[in-house]
Amino acid sequence: MVTFTLNGEQRTFDGDPDTPLLWVIRDFEKLTGTKYGCGVAQCGACTVHLDGMPRRSCITPIAMIDGSDVVTIEGISGKEAEAVQAAWKGLDVPQCGYCQSGQIMSAVALLQILPKPTDDEIDGAMAGNLCRCATYHRIRAAIHNAAKSMEG
Amino acid sequence: MTIHDITPTRRAFLAGAGLVIGVAIAPRFLSAASTGIPAGGSGELKAMNAFVKIGPDDTVTVLSKHIEFGQGPFTGLATLVAEELDADWSQMRAVHSPTDNKVYANLSFGLQGTGGSSSIANAYEQMRKAGATARAMLVAAAAEEWNVPAAEITVEKGRIKHAGSGKESGFGAFADKAARQVAPADPKLKDPKDFVLIGTELPKLDTQGKTDGTAVFTLDIMPEGLLTAVVAHPKHFGAIVKSFDDGNARKVRGVVDIKLVPQGVAVYADNTFSALKGRDALTIEWDLSKAETRSSEELTVEYVRHFDEPGLEATNTGNVDEALRQQGLQTVEAQIVFPFLAHAPMEPLDAVFIKAADGSVDIYNGAQFPGFDQQVAAKILALDEEKVRVNTQLAGGSFGRKAQFGSPYMQEAASVYAAIGGDRPLKHMWTREDDIRGGFYRPMYAHKMRGAIDATGQITAWEQIIVGQSIMAKADLDSTSVEGASNLPYKIPNLKVISHNITLPIPPLWWRSVGHTHTGFAVETFVDELLTRVGRDPVEGRLALIDASSRHAGVLRKAAEMSNWGVTPPEGRARGVAVVESFGSFVSQVAEISVGSDGAPRVHKVWCAVDCGVAVNPNIIKAQMEGGIGYGLGAVLFDAITLGKGGKITQSNFHDYRSIRINEMPDVVVEIIKSAEKPTGVGEPGVPPIGPAVANAWRKLTGAPVRQLPIVSVISS
Fold this sequence. Notes:
The complex is a heterodimer. By secondary structure, chain A is an alpha+beta fold. Chain A is 37% helix and 14% strand. In chain A, a hairpin with a 2-residue loop joins strand 1 (2-6) and strand 2 (9-13). The longest helix of chain B is centred in the N-terminal third of the chain and has 28 residues, at 119-146.
């Protein structure tokens, strides 16, 4: 039996301990904002926050997160999350939209650590998140806009 | 596909009038949230026609006959309706229309479908008429209710007004009465000079749900009792199951059943992970007797062999052979080899099947040709077509992947559903490995080019031989193999284009911009090489070969102006240019590159000029150019599906089928040519020019022409 918190609520899981966190979140908790894209931590569509840090949930066995705090796109809050989501809307960043939950989770974690990232720091934090629509140009601009909106 | 223009008949257009065109009614045991049935406006919606519904809360819901997977048809089609309806943008909503090959036909195809960058182009007048019709019906209803002449009623930003009496209302109050009005046969459309919404950067209707995780894709549909199924596929094209042992797989917790299906071995489970674990535990022996067992290198040898054989003539003007023999000319020969390319949309292929109490079946999937999906599923499930409802869902990209004749993906999904039987809902999904190894690639092509140019920059002869699979499965000339080459934009007196069709067990498919993915590259790198051979500037030299007043010349001049072409770039950098017409739109790009630390091209900036006629939503057009550049650049730099020794597919996931990442994305600047021409598409036309623009800059920088793609394959070899 694995116990963890999901978006602030305590949850338990007593299925196969090898089950990746991604499939626990989706199939068992029915939170579908977190996406499957590759299953091998190459695309970032499954990014969640695990104890405050971005984590690829597709390669994280549920047994490893006992006692941890998991936040998904459905549960993010705070000034960084608000700034990022507003900036994403301001530039109409998404195209197909499938990778965007993961993009936003990575961007929020970046701004929580570095409130005013440089282009290189954005590259470093976001290079693990693929977007086949290649919305990268707007993702970069939106992160800068979000950082600006949090000033003062 | 026979692409022919069909004028929408009034009957087809009005087929939905007065009817409540239902998105499929959810089975009892499903909550709306779990089905993914799009919400649209709230309350009871009244249909003005097949495309427009109005709710009591004043919302206007547009039924999009085109699937939304990122190119913006929800927003674009709703803009066209809102313009003629004089609606306020805040009241507009969009959902996918039901499946109907007549009412919801793509007017360029003659059946329902999305592709060929045709959504706005084919629906431009149709959707405006749908809006104008609804407006007239609302006005008629108001005139009746207020007892005033309809001609005195005005509509602006969603408010219906009669100045004389001071009466005013929103749309919702008249929705019911309006739905019962006779639809005008030929509503008057606005003069473009009076547009208030078309041409403005309206915010997209689907952005909210795509920033907070609430947008529902097929993978997110989770009815109660759902079974998840995956199929073990071969790693060779054309292989079939010889025998399999499922003993260990059946022991995996959560695995419900295992069945042989025509495409492989299907594993059914109570959850996704159990299905995947069960599939990993299968032991399968494959029969390779009909499989492709040649490697990519062996295929290349086979392709190149065709250059010397007679082929299918696509174009033959003047006398190329004689012109190539003339003295005093610079001649260039080139062979360019293009690899197979997977589309790799972020959401791998998937579909959900839910049986209703009456035995009919609802299918939820990212349906690009929903009518084909319906026909195929009905046949496999042994149901009448009207007992199978295809409910189109938002899809995580496609880039051509979901547009398939005969719906081979749906054949697999429906076969898996049919094989288990029973009443449990079923989700069939592909993993990324299934997707990368799943075929339906942009085919491999080999081009042989021969050209001659005189000292003044006149290209006197051009021969191009193109070898590859026919996407349309033709024995004779397939126009998609030669488009962009057979209709070369440059004035060349002696021009010959020859095509060879290759047959392989590897299924081919169109990939974002179809034939232009390779012809654009071959033509634009070759013309650049010829021009620079005689010292001509690539921009000026091209302009001298096309009409000054052409749209080709327009975008080329604009891209040159935007980039300050002619100004020497910083030390260590070079610029290349390309211009390609595809799907009726014209795009020119200038790329500035350097040699990156890994020895590969590093693309710093791209200037892009696009002429797509009337710009319905400039922000979406710019986004499609940015995205097209990123998609095309990733492929040209990194991507190839290759067959190893014995024919086994080498790649399996994003680690070896690279995608461009944020740190590799150039800065992009886009300008749109102001135009009153009919609007044309933008989903694909941003792709073709980026490859040749980068390759031309690379040749300038390093002296090495790019003769094989992806570029990294040449650098590392």
